[in-house]
Amino acid sequence: MKFVKYGSIVLITFVIIAGLAIPLSSSPQSWFQFPVIPALEQKARNIFFHVPVAWTTVVAFLVSLFYGYRYLRTRDITYDIKSVSSAGLGLMFCVLATITGALWAKFNWGSFWNWDPRETSIFILLLIYGAYFALRSALESEEKRATLSAVYSIVAGITVPFFIFVMPRIMAGLHPGAKGDPEGAGPVVQFDMTPNMLVVFLLSLLGFTLLYVWLLNIRVRMAKLEYERSIQHS
Amino acid sequence: MSALSSTYALIRKDIQSELRTRYALNALLMFVVTTVATILFALRSDQPTPTVLSGMYWVVIFFTAMSGLSRIFVSEEERGTTMTLQLVASPSVVYFGKLLFNVVLTLSLTVAVTLLYMIVFSTSFTIQTPSIFIVTVLLGSLGFASAATIIAAIVAKANTRGTLYPVLSFPVLIVLLMTVMAATAKALDGEPFEAALGDFQILLGYILAMTGGSYLLFDYVWKD
Fold first, then answer.
1. What is the pTM of this model?
2. What ipTM was estimated for this complex?
3. Number of Cβ within a 10 Å radius of residue A163
4. A141, A94, A152, A92: which is closest to A118 by C-alpha?
5. From the first residue on, what is the mean pLDDT of each consecutive set of 10 residues in chain A (234 residues)?
6. Euclidean distance between CA atoms A10 and A67, whole angstroms
7. Cross-chain CB nearest to B175 (options A127, A130, A162)
8. Which residues of B touch A134 (CB under 8 A)?
9. Which residue in B189, B88, B214 sits closest to B136, CA to CA?
């Protein structure tokens, strides 16, 4: 965990400094110059924060789903604790991705929200997280809460491929990879980044993933302590 | 009893007990009339476009379904017959029985809404390509019922059933809703049948994935 903890701090600090401070140049010569991307310009720096946060949201959702499935197979309550802790972090990252995305959209595309397929997807993901926690608060028995919320997250997970792979193809959108994009529609966005941008971007992905692992570890330990205390008191 | 005949017996039992009280049917019908009347009040004499009409068509069906489709499991909990059903039938039989009953209910719902729409929006709700419309309504009802049934089973175990049901269903149904709305708009616009094939593929994939997933997960929800 020490590696994860310090790794995430070092990496994210590096990404904040490098991502914000490296100057743009219309003809980049050396490693400390980023190219000017037409229409994006300085706003392109948001890619080092918005995309990794959105990526972490999906990772957190998948981890929550995986532990929910493990719970159903084993009926071991620690898996439910892990699942709900990951879902809570996923909700936080989902809100962050929505905010960073909406701000970026405002300054690049003119309005905070356009119902682009990816914006719709993140909105649905927010709704799924909201519904997941609403369901949990409506169930009193611990076992039922764990089972039913695991089932619900799997049922919701079944629809996720539809809006990741299918919707961007049938709806016109503004994000790269949408229908009508000259570089081709698809779930995986083609990155036309220079090597130094790519390095910062990948380090940012790694940094945010490590931050997620660290936070998940803290939350799971806390939730386990609370659970043990609640057993002793009852 | 074989699985098929016990599924049939379960559907017959549900239809019989429904016809005795007509609780769900009456509630659904009144809900449809109320929402369509509200739309008419809001529109006054405006003539909405096909896109708006096809959108509102499915909005009416969505909220009506949300008010009625959870009955299928909630009524078993309320009458205290869940245990008996667990004893006499296997989970897969219960699941498919309830699913088919919900399919029947959703189909009759769409028929009612369509008829009402044809009467009140006689000038603007003209289905130019009936083949697209019929396939969309059939697949849409199947998809609606497949997602609504598993969520009804989940909601029946919770405390705040009425409010929770649409909250849980909406994120799951939104892909389906967007697709059927697009397909219905195509039927109203008079596009050729081939134009909606992509939508039908999505609907079929959704139905298969949802029914298969629910079938595998139903055991965990059903058994206490």
1. 0.88
2. 0.89
3. 22
4. A94
5. 90 89 78 74 84 92 94 93 95 94 87 84 90 92 92 91 73 64 49 78 93 96 93 83
6. 29
7. A162
8. 164, 167-168
9. B189
